[in-house]
Amino acid sequence: MEPIIEVKNLVKTFDSRGKKITAVNDVSFNVFKGEIFGMIGPNGAGKSTTFSMLTTLTKPTSGSIKISGFDALKQNDKIRPIIGIVSQKLSLYLLLTARESKV
Q1: Any idea what the CATH number is for the domain that residue 38 is in?
Q2: Between 96 and which of 12, 16, 37, 101 could a Cys-Cys bridge form, CB atoms 3.0 to 4.6 Å apart?
């Protein structure tokens, strides 16, 4: 059985005031059809950054992500229509309609 989500050696680093910060360090996992998947961990563990990369909103520094066989770096236009996420934060653009705020 092929995974619906396939993450291999995912890394995300940021530059903050000239200092390199690693938010996600060599994360790998698979999610298969029918599974319910979530991530838990302390603040600053990289959960939100990982989901931001899975939803194609942020590009990884290195590693690979496949969603339903589509490469997240090269085929994000194929991935966005088939995924969904419920964030803990309210993320609305108050001046846009729902149709206008599509990513």
Answers
A1: 3.40.50.300
A2: 101
First to last CA, the chain: 31
Q: Which domain, by its residues, includes 31?
A: 5-82
pLDDT digits (tens, 9 = 90+) for 7-57: 999 999 999 889 999 999 999 999 999 999 889 999 999 999 999 999 998
- pTM, full prediction: 0.80
Q: What is the token pair recorded at 48?
A: 């939100």
| Contact yes or no for 84/65 (Cβ under 8 A) | no
Q: How many CB atoms lie within 10 A of CB 12?
A: 21
Give the separation between CA 44 and CA 16, rounded to whole angstroms. Answer: 15
